[in-house]
Amino acid sequence: MARKTSKKAEATKIFVLDTNVLMHDPTSLFRFEEHDIFLPIMTLEELDNHKKGMSEIARNARQVSRTLDEMLALAEDIEEGIPLDEPSKGLASGRLLLQTEAISSELPPALPTSKVDNQILAVVIHLQRRYPKRSVILVSKDINMRIKARSLGLPAEDYFNDKVLEDTDLLYAGSRALPADFWDKHGQGMESWKKDGKTYYRVSGPLCPDLLLNEFVYLEGEPEFTALVKEAAGKKAVLETLVDYSHPKHAVWGINARNREQNFALNLLMDPEIDFVTLLGQAGTGKTLLTLAAGLTQVLETKRYAEIIMTRVTVPVGEDIGFLPGTEEEKMAPWMGALEDNLEVLTHSEEGGGAFSGEWSKAATTDLIRSRIKVKSLNFMRGRTFLSKFLIIDEAQNLTPKQMKTLITRAGPGTKVVCLGNIAQIDTPYLTEGSSGLTYVVDRFKGWTHSGHITLQRGERSRLADHAAEVL
After folding, report:
1. Model's pTM, two decimal places?
2. pLDDT tens digits along 195-205
3. Relative orientation angle of helices 56-74 and 41-49, to the nearest 10 degrees
4. At what angle do helices 116-130 and 41-49 cross, to 10 degrees?
């Protein structure tokens, strides 16, 4: 029996965690399944140095310290390691090993032993000698630390558990092109009916199991067929035709869809049954303009929502310009250039006709619109509940999954949440396309009855902006 156990121990790995992994994800202690985790004393020392303050890193450092404290209280023998099965509620079955002895440094003379990173590398070398039959791997979010480890011949890996997707090309796009023979394979025994001005088709065939709820499907040709998946169960699916927002009679606040994806986006934004919408797309695809047009129509014309609330992460592209004077609204004003630019398009829209003609009516319209749009800072969102609001989260790619959860859970009855962003333009350090909160919600909400997503493809800003997005 003992021999079997030792063989199992040889098969499992020992992961040495760098401090930045714990500060990035406080639950990382429970993410290594059957493998053992080793925490060097310098990792704990660094945790102690980062625990003060109100930043996300400080909060995570405190959470890790509390978790370790609870685990040590239940530990019988620290030398043997602390079983992770009970504290992780069955997520991990390995052991947590703490450094309980002084480890002499055996690093190349060029590396200063006073540096924390180098002391952690010395621990990895020591463990390799102590457990020659087990693989000892350093896990760190610090690229330079991993390069240094590999140059010394030590295995080192990034911490991947925070990534929603390994490859963002696999991210759900929200729309799907149907094969040219779609009706031949799925049209047999098809039922169709009309309800509230829309046509429904019940189809069955090999493609149906792959379809997701609220996914857009289109068949190119003359005329083009576009529809939304309303029901998807096994080999059957119900498709619902869309409102054509590219037609002038369906203009939303004077705005028409200029391409297929914009039409899909407006169908989601104007649908009262959809509570959560995510719009992805590069610069100039019309994300903010379409959302504001849909918001204003539903606040001022149909009175579906009481007001528009707009928020975004205040991450500067260049150097920060320091403190801003004024109230919350005034402090947020410099960050809301996108809102101002789009309001200018919407209030001075030539297509709007009579309502926008004349200087006096333009000024009156602008004042009315501004009274119904509130700009809020993310910092004061905890504990709030928004009732019957149209909540727009701009630049959502800069949010962490935790911040995204905080924001979306603010939604009360009758509130619609719209997340806009471009995952190719992340300005927050430590966030990548794979671990962004926007990628996280797109992946987690796909296929839910009351949510929809679309990736906008074509830029409609100007030929200069489109060319710059391609070549730069």
Report:
1. 0.77
2. 988 999 999 98
3. 130
4. 150
